Amino acid sequence: MTVASKALRGSVAITGVGLAGMGEAKGYTELEILAQAAHAAVADAGLAMSDIDGLMTASFNRFLPGLSVAEYLGIAPAYIDTTNVGGSSYIAYLLSAALALNAGLCNAVLVAYGSTARTQRDFRDHIRYRAQLEPQPYEAPAQPFNPVTSYALAAARHMHQFGTTREQLAQVAVAARQWAQLNPDAFMRTPLSIDDVLSAKPISDPLTLRDCCLVTDGAGAFVMTRADRARDLKNDPVYVLGVGSAQSHRQISSMPDLTETAAVVSGQRAFQMAGLTPDQIDVLQLYDAFTINVILFLEDLGFCKKGEGGAFLESVGIGPSGSLPVNTNGGGLSCVHSGMYGVFTIVEAVHQLRGSAEGRQVQDAVTALCHGNGGVLASQVTAVLGTDQAL
Amino acid sequence: MNHATFVPGLLPAEKTYFDFLKEGRWHIQRCLGCSSCVFYPRQYCPHCGHAHLEWITPAGLGTVYSLSKVHHPTDAQQSHVVALVDLDEGVRVMGVLGGNNSLAVRIGDRVRAALELFAGENRLVFQAES
């Protein structure tokens, strides 16, 4: 295993964040809400859009996203990265931005995402179009309803191999909804019980509609600078302490072991760079595309033993009244999910570390872990963030 | 003058697989370098990188690794079960469960592969092996 570069630790910081179009942005285009989030993040950083000379953005439907976004915003970045590994891309950009900023290739990186997945298209049509653009000929004949079926297969195997229960999966959704009830930006805020999850419309066994992330509109953006400049800007900087990335497959039928993801590797890389261990993390943002994800990531990132994720989250509690805060904005399950969720883990972690997560603030949060998943459990990217107390 | 050489005699893997299926034949690859079976079909062995793979006929038996019933959004009769099956040859394939007892099949059960015509093409269907 390659040794992560500790020289990157604390070298760059997130200095501005922005959200826009959360939930339903009827009448707006994707680029319009992306631009709103981007301008909000740049203003939050105390900068002007003309200061932005690095751009990172990915999209599930824009063919040349870097060009479209730069053109829309009226910027001409010296450094662009539009790597797309799915929903984890926005956490992977932390590493790319760190490398570009440290090399002096740019001075202020804007990372931006926006999608009107809810108001501008029918979701099932979108799945069909994707299947036409990129056929998966060895899986398509069986007609899996992807991505849900791929995650359902993973959940079913975890239940078979470790005795994980549907109630434990449902508890992930219940905890996410409890956090969402504290967040005015969250899309679904009505009370949700375990029974509500179990009796919701079944999609692909064992997952029901409430085991699946929302389909909403939403845009998110953040700005990164080198650490020295960050200290001169408006807000308390949130430093990037470690980032690690790994991947294991593309299709679920090629995943070596459906009960263990490449988060085992990405987590090790991130923790090694940060010089921290799981017990030193104050707040977690784990991309919850489906309830099984949180169980898998708690295990694979080292918060509990493999197979014990269900029992673990039941015993420690991951909701507002628990001892391990996970997805404090309500997550993809209850806050927002417009296709690529990774950017929202970063924005929420920054608010928690700045102390600006009104109504849902984790007391004395100094370190945060953001974990993104791309494709069908395929790409795994982990980041550890911290305040200056963590440096 | 250098140019990439197309090695004659190496068939395109994907087309070969699906041409067999059209004829009602099911074959998977075995690497002539490391003897591993390979699925999905490749031009090069993903385990050892060898360029020569032969086509073999699987015995047809395997063990269910996972399964999920996909609920049709409006018509319960059209719901079907997707399965990942570990063939005895050491590769994993995706197929559907078929036959009268498809809903009784559980993870860990032994199943046997067959081909069924669906939407104009042959696809893998698995039934419980008693």
List keywords for this structure.
heterodimer; A: 391 residues; alpha/beta; nine-stranded mixed beta sheet; two-stranded antiparallel ribbon; 13 helices; 11 strands; 35% helix; B: 130 residues; mainly beta; five-stranded mixed beta barrel; three-stranded antiparallel beta sheet; 39% strand; globular
User: Structural class of the helix and strand makeup of chain B?
Assistant: mainly beta
Secondary structure tally, helices of chain A: 13
Contiguous low-pLDDT stretches of chain B (5 residues minimum) are none
In angstroms, what is the radius of gyration of chain B?
17 Å
Largest sheet of chain A: 9 strands, mixed
Distance between the termini of chain A: 25 Å
Q: Please state how the strands of the largest beta sheet of chain A are arranged side by side.
A: 3-2-4-7-1-8-11-10-9
pLDDT < 50 runs, ≥5 residues of chain A: none
What is the H/E string of chain B? Answer: HEEEEEEEE
* Helix percent band of chain A: 25-40%
Hey, which two chains have the biggest interface? A-B, 26 and 27 residues
Using only C-alpha atoms, the radius of gyration of chain A works out to: 19 Å
Profile the largest sheet of chain B: 5 strands, mixed, barrel
